[in-house]
Design a protein that fits this description.
34% of the residues lie in helices and 12% in strands. It has 7 helices and 5 strands. The chain has helices at 4-15, 24-33, 49-59, 63-72, 92-96, 99-110, 162-173; strands at 84-89, 123-128, 139-144, 153-158, 181-182. A 5-stranded mixed beta sheet has the order 2-1-3-4-5, covered by helices on one side. Strand 4 (153-158), helix 7 (162-173) and strand 5 form a beta-alpha-beta unit. It starts with a helix and ends in a 32-residue tail after the last strand.
Length: 214
């Protein structure tokens, strides 16, 4: 079994990445995101202090740079995740709208804690900060790794409730494709629930001076 440091070493050797030292963090991202035969979704590995130091040595940069990349980007998972990685938004609008209840419902239904994987390897639960759809809070993103790390997709489910999020989990378990976007039947995309209450007719044109009078 190869650790993350060996994967980074092989990637660096194969790609021969040579960048300006001031831009070397791009090399870190490239090496981390590579999906090689040694680095696949089913390979067990640990993001240990020793591995972090080794990656930094291979890429010729400070260890803190490695840690920054690995912890900032949500697509870099430092622990094993399931084929479906459920990410609950934890930013303020979603929290106000009940995201903690959403997370609690998922954890209870799956019988796991945050960042744990179910025994069948199908699901794991994590947190993601601001998914950019606050108007439809609360929301959950599902990272789908069923086609491998290169073919993964992020699917957004908005306006979720504890009941609905469990239904989505069970649809995924059965191999079905839940409808993405808002789960509120009264809402169209990001429009107001129940329909518009303003701008119901064509707006009046702005007043303009009579150009012919001059």
């Amino acid at each position: 079994m190869f650790g993350i440091a060996e994967v980074a070493r092989r990637a660096a050797a194969r790609l021969r990445v040579r960048v300006n030292p001031g831009l070397r963090h791009f090399s870190t991202t490239l090496n981390y995101h590579l999906d090689s035969p040694d680095n696949n979704p089913n390979m067990p590995w640990d993001f240990t202090e020793a591995n972090k130091e080794r990656v930094a040595e291979v890429l010729e940069m400070a260890p803190i740079r490695v840690f920054e990349v690995a912890t900032f980007y949500s697509m870099f998972n430092r622990t094993k995740v399931g084929k479906y990685h459920l990410l609950v938004c934890g930013t303020t609008p979603c929290m106000i709208r009940g995201s903690r209840d959403i997370e609690g419902a998922i954890l209870k239904h799956l019988g796991v804690k945050r960042n744990e994987v179910t025994k069948d390897g199908m699901f794991s639960v994590g947190e993601m900060e601001c998914m950019g759809c606050c108007v439809n809070a609360p929301m959950v993103a599902v990272a789908d790794y069923t086609k491998g790390s290169e073919g993964f997709t992020y699917n957004y489910y908005e306006d979720v409730t504890p009941k609905r999020v469990v239904e989505i989990v069970e649809m995924l378990r059965r191999g079905e494709t839940p409808p993405v976007g808002t789960q509120n039947p009264e809402r169209i995309k990001a429009g107001p629930a129940g329909g518009n209450t303003t701008l119901l007719s064509e707006p009046k044109p702005p007043p303009c001076r009579d150009l012919d009078s001059s």
